[in-house]
Amino acid sequence: MKQVRVGVVGATGYTGSELVRILSRHPHARLDIITSVSRAGERFSDVHPAFRGIEDRTLAPLSALSEHELDLLLLALPHGASMEFVSELGTERFRIIDLSGDFRLRSSAVYEEWYGRAHVSAERLSDAVYGLPELNRADIRSARLVANPGCYPTSVILLAAPLLKHRLVRSEGIVIDSKSGVTGAGSAARSGTHFPWVFGNFRAYGLLRHRHTPEIEQALSDLADRDVRVQFTPHLLPIDRGILTTVYAEAVEGVTDTMIRQAYRQSYGGETFVRVLDGPPSVKNVRASNYCDLFATFDSRTNRVVGVSVIDNLVKGAAGQAVQNMNIMFDLPEDAGLEQPPLCP
Amino acid sequence: MKQVRVGVVGATGYTGSELVRILSRHPHARLDIITSVSRAGERFSDVHPAFRGIEDRTLAPLSALSEHELDLLLLALPHGASMEFVSELGTERFRIIDLSGDFRLRSSAVYEEWYGRAHVSAERLSDAVYGLPELNRADIRSARLVANPGCYPTSVILLAAPLLKHRLVRSEGIVIDSKSGVTGAGSAARSGTHFPWVFGNFRAYGLLRHRHTPEIEQALSDLADRDVRVQFTPHLLPIDRGILTTVYAEAVEGVTDTMIRQAYRQSYGGETFVRVLDGPPSVKNVRASNYCDLFATFDSRTNRVVGVSVIDNLVKGAAGQAVQNMNIMFDLPEDAGLEQPPLCP
Amino acid sequence: MKQVRVGVVGATGYTGSELVRILSRHPHARLDIITSVSRAGERFSDVHPAFRGIEDRTLAPLSALSEHELDLLLLALPHGASMEFVSELGTERFRIIDLSGDFRLRSSAVYEEWYGRAHVSAERLSDAVYGLPELNRADIRSARLVANPGCYPTSVILLAAPLLKHRLVRSEGIVIDSKSGVTGAGSAARSGTHFPWVFGNFRAYGLLRHRHTPEIEQALSDLADRDVRVQFTPHLLPIDRGILTTVYAEAVEGVTDTMIRQAYRQSYGGETFVRVLDGPPSVKNVRASNYCDLFATFDSRTNRVVGVSVIDNLVKGAAGQAVQNMNIMFDLPEDAGLEQPPLCP
Amino acid sequence: MKQVRVGVVGATGYTGSELVRILSRHPHARLDIITSVSRAGERFSDVHPAFRGIEDRTLAPLSALSEHELDLLLLALPHGASMEFVSELGTERFRIIDLSGDFRLRSSAVYEEWYGRAHVSAERLSDAVYGLPELNRADIRSARLVANPGCYPTSVILLAAPLLKHRLVRSEGIVIDSKSGVTGAGSAARSGTHFPWVFGNFRAYGLLRHRHTPEIEQALSDLADRDVRVQFTPHLLPIDRGILTTVYAEAVEGVTDTMIRQAYRQSYGGETFVRVLDGPPSVKNVRASNYCDLFATFDSRTNRVVGVSVIDNLVKGAAGQAVQNMNIMFDLPEDAGLEQPPLCP
């Protein structure tokens, strides 16, 4: 089978190292270049010592990209840097999967409102395909530019989609309470992620204004075929990896647990990476894997549906989903490189 | 100043040891007897080695209670055992603060529905005072039997009370998403609390049916002056101590952040143990203390109020609140024995 | 390439599930049967929910082994049960890798002294090969019965071997201070592994009498060609996976850091799974992998060599090393099924 | 009883906040001023939000010290800053307890060797009293300048002292393997203390060259009445608070466990804050307290004594010991302000 020739752009952070971790064992991808702006010239395994003896190549500067024939670039750049990169290099020479937030929103006005800066590549927003395979597989296949979903949105949308698509819940008044491990905050040390402060701690953050809110709303609006506004509250879990999302939505008249089960089975019966459970999922059961485990149930006391989903934020919430998208784009088995069972315990 | 003569009944669990921890430094309480059914005859410090040299007395059997003149019993017994104890011994000889769930609900029917057994002391349910000092101080003062609130309900009710009392939110559709440390699950080792399983993990449990639901609903109904049904979902945090509760409620027409702030100030301006913050609270900032830190804000996008509260589940959620109740019952300074700052880091 | 037909005996514990995790992705092994005594008849993925959709077969009773043509049995049984199993079934029908302590010691008297029971299969102790590939590769290749090393001994022996073999340290007075994650204590919930007790805690255990002591002494004696007695102290780390061992040994006259480096390079230059570092290793850099990272240095102030090694106790310390042994026994690439990079963060 | 008038100099770090935590409940100390260089002008409770409502005073600049009549200054400054402070202000106006390493070593040459800078106040080194109350109580009582011991040295010296004083072990070849929680690394966020890296991790650091080595050697040399060199290796535990130290020493001829027990009883029988246990201690049993729990035993197989001690590095290893020293210096009950039981769980 063919080998996709891949470059990872921006490999000093967690998303970058996770891409390398997965790609290093991918049977049909060949990682040809790994770049870094801040640490170009250093060995990848000096930046990420776990890779000693596994990936010892030197981090290349961005300029070195021109020396390679590549099929695909995986951009693990900060928000803002991605759109500048795409604006400069375009998507003609290589297909691109962007793991930042820069191409997830279709509206540049909404982008500016939530990201606090103008979009420099607004004309491409309509071409970018939102890379959630379980919803957009067909479009991903042919996309030149895939916007890899945010970690929280992945956990939310996969959980809420069957409920909205099957019209089991009202689209008004949805409440989303998410909890994420600290790798979601990035690899740079800051006072908010200092070990003695996070250890034994738990807190909410980004109340009312987290940037994943419009991304969630855009996807849920598509599913509901009407404007959806959600209440989204993220919290910081004292663990390294993992997101758990709890969703609350008002049931429409007549909903039963059987209908809910059927909706989920219909949506995900053929999906490799979504596991519909009979009870609430646990973050650790998906650690280091590309799975999303989920469960939803109807509360007749309150006439509400309560759903819970879990993912590994660095895998299904970032690098794993990017590889899943790559597999789709290049007609590879969708689980290629992603077959490892979760790491539990 | 006088010394209240106290007995702790049931001291092998976490609530019992936390009572002893606090009472050992209380300036106006004298701990005269500590009992245990399962480990009577052993030294308290053999069961709880942290107390070596501090509390080395022998755990007495229940029968030894009759040998002591006591003003107050603190019951740290399992649900079910408390009501049997009270049923047998009554509340004439000593005043009682019960830390179990047995006397928190006014309706024996509701108790039976959620606790799965008939109440054996139903006639006393109407006498028992729900011991949340910030709401019921006057009644606590004269009570013979105080039902110490559950840990989750304490975090919920203190957070929601000002909103409901001041009619800032609708009483329908309240969603409560709570997260608790593992000490809330008790001191007995079980597979669900085995370290390798909980470490790095996070999960929801007790969906739709947690026993603290009717307790919360009873209190919020009183505050709203109408029947309130809530959606309550607890989760298990991989930490030892601490609860964080996030509450979502629909705002009534015209609510502003200023009105919210005023409601909280009015409710808690004179309270020692409730701290109203200007931003979301952190569990670690109340660790080992009797504080409840909280924050609420209005989201004009969604017309909803989002509130967050934190407590130490073993202190303000159990033993500390019991001592606060004791202080009120015996006309002591309300913070006697509870003045220690939080332990952070 | 051929497929080794494998059975895992005893799959309800952590070692068993880790074997299944690794074997499920092994290119040249076919897992034909998974047995359990205590939970036979249940689905593997009901016992280990992380495997839902990955390994859903039913756990077979031991009796079902006779229905399968197998090349190899991997025994993940408790100490004592293994020797009874081997005593009954022998090693003629299948080759065996035993992950318990039952066949690691060559002397039945030493076994009895440290394990507190007589050995029921003493006549096989001399046939069993101690399965540390980096030291015993040739013997492993042809062995019928391989005794897979203990987790602590693996971390100790790999670290100490070059020093003793190259006569860089004296064999008297070696001090070994080891620290292990809690999975090393097994999957059964006990008070000593209850989350609220282990969280934020750290302690030594098994002082002077841990069963891995004679196993370490046997291996080091072989290396030093004389009787070695060590001081071994294990400690319990509040993490799930990982062992770090610190070894202290008196240097012989004239030792330099260069000589130490050369000894390690010579010993491990061709080894896939031992990485010799330039500074102290970190447990997380080998998590979920079969690597042993190590470092040793000479202290001229004290005339002592200090060495530090890390492994994942469930992989290189148990299941991974067993698969490495299997690969050797069946002439497969030694890293087959073990190529995954460590999981960090 | 009198009130000691105290100033805390340098209150933005963990040692400073821990001093305030303890002093805020001290019955005989009055905290008159809290200074900070970097954050002067901010409220203490804005820097340390756990103290909201408890200690809301403004952090004063150093210059404000002259406006106060003080009996004692507690210096929680970085190494280097302390000696400059003392060099400028002297010890005539107030007695001083310095929590840095600047006055712990009697020899300025040794200081320069290990701290990498010349000592600017070398003439005071001989006046400074090493503030380990259990060994130096008499000298502390009258000292003008007390050097509060390092966290590791406290755990080591208390453990080793009875063995050396009673000549139960040889003073050559002592090996010290210590493990500390992350607060020991200070409150400033750095990559080495970033949560996702420390979580689930464990590592050694400062091999051969940790600055606490000469401090330990100075104290043990005094005890042994001869030059002692030790092998000291610190490790970083993934917890916030706590140190566990394991010490290995060769026994002299004829040592028994009874002799060891007697030596410890004789040394610490009258001590409030040292608890001699019958088995290995646990870090969590001293959390948030001034206790040092310890245990030592003789291994007849190896002719070695193995000892284990635990402290809370921020309390007995820093602020608590400083308050204990203050109590001694001002003829207060030695446990004043330090009576809180440990926080476990």
Descriptors for this entry?
homotetramer, 345 residues, alpha/beta, Rossmann fold, Dihydrodipicolinate Reductase, domain 2, 2 domains, 6-stranded parallel β-sheet, 10 helices, 13 strands
Based on helices, strands and strand pairing, what is the structural class of chain A? Answer: alpha/beta
Gyration radius of chain A (Cα, Å) is 20 Å
Write down how many β-strands of chain A occur, each being a DSSP E stretch of 2 or more residues: 13
Q: Which pair has the most extensive contact?
A: A-B, 45 and 45 residues
C-alpha end-to-end distance of chain A: 35 Å
- Could you name the CATH homologous superfamily of the largest domain in chain A? Dihydrodipicolinate Reductase, domain 2
Mean pLDDT of chain A: 97
* Silhouette of chain A: globular
Assign a percent range to the helix content of chain A. 25-40%
Multimeric organization: homotetramer
Poorly predicted regions of chain A are none
Contiguous helical run count of chain A: 10
**What's the architecture of the largest domain in chain A, going by CATH?**
2-Layer Sandwich
Please outline the major beta sheet of chain A.
7 strands, mixed
Write out the strand line-up for the largest beta sheet of chain A, numbering strands in chain order: 8-9-7-10-13-12-11
- Write down the domain tally of chain A: 2
Return the CATH topology of the largest domain in chain A. Dihydrodipicolinate Reductase, domain 2
Element-level helix/strand string of chain A: EHEHEHEHEHEHEHEHEEHEEEH
β-strand amount of chain A: 15-25%
